[in-house]
Amino acid sequence: MIRLLNLKSLLLLVISLNIFSEKNSEIFSFIDDNAQYFLQLIKNDGNEFESNPEEFKNKLKNIWEPMVDVRLVSRLILNDAYKDASEQQIELFEERTKKLLLDTYVSTLLEFKEYDIETQTDIKVNKNNTYEVSVKFSSANAYSFSSKFTIYRNTKNELKIINIIIDGINLGLTFRNQFRDVYKNSALDLDVAIKNWQPLSSDEIFSDS
Prior knowledge:
This protein is an alpha+beta fold. It has one domain: Tgt2/MlaC (Nuclear Transport Factor 2, Chain: A). 56% of the residues lie in helices and 16% in strands.
């Protein structure tokens, strides 16, 4: 009986490890495949940025936009203001958030044509069912830094990014704090706050890092 129980326990452990390994492999590929493609596009076609910057940035955004849960990110940035927001206000804020996140990330990475990317296989599993994946950017001619992605699985079982930390700068927290200040200065008028919200550019965000 003891041997049978031990055998069952061992089998359950092996199955659990295999499932965990498969999940990690899927999460790793979700970030690494897109990150490598993104960087390769910058290296191979980066000269297009000089002649037609907006078109080239849109090409890069098309890689990242489907990966991000803009609605959830917007809700996190709105924070307390979300509960009183109308659907129209939420949709407007989502459009601004999407443009901001993609512009910031794309503009930042455009500076790293000479970098190589290494996605770390050690994926952190958080208690709130989110995952953290780190991507290291390294270059022989410049300093190395990491970009960390927080990922979750939505109700459609899709992996989505809900936050990005670039070189220690938490973009989600930075944008939330920026909007909170604008909201307060707008006398808690959400329409005015959304209209007046002019988040810092990527140059301003990383100037003190």
